[in-house]
Amino acid sequence: MFVTADAPIDASRVVAALKTVAPFTDAPTRPLALPASWAQSSFLVEKVSP
To answer: Which of 2, 11, 13, 16 could pair with 41 in a Cys bridge, judged by C-beta atoms 3.0 to 4.6 Å apart?
Structure first.
């Protein structure tokens, strides 16, 4: 999860939001409950075995 904002971000709010979505199978792409003025992007990198 990548979170941006025009003002400083309270990292503890991001961590708390991440903990609430962690139990869900779609956690890597589930939107976080963050202020509307914050932007978030999700991306998942998977390592593939040869």
So the answer is: 2
pTM, full prediction = 0.77
Do residues 1 and 32 touch, judged by C-beta distance below 8 A?
yes
Distances (CA, A) of 9 to 26, 41, 48: 24, 15, 33
Closest CA to 41 of 49, 33, 32: 32
| Average pLDDT value for the chain | 92
Encoded tokens for 11 = 């990292």
Tally of CA atoms within 13 A in the half-sphere of 13 that contains its CB: 11
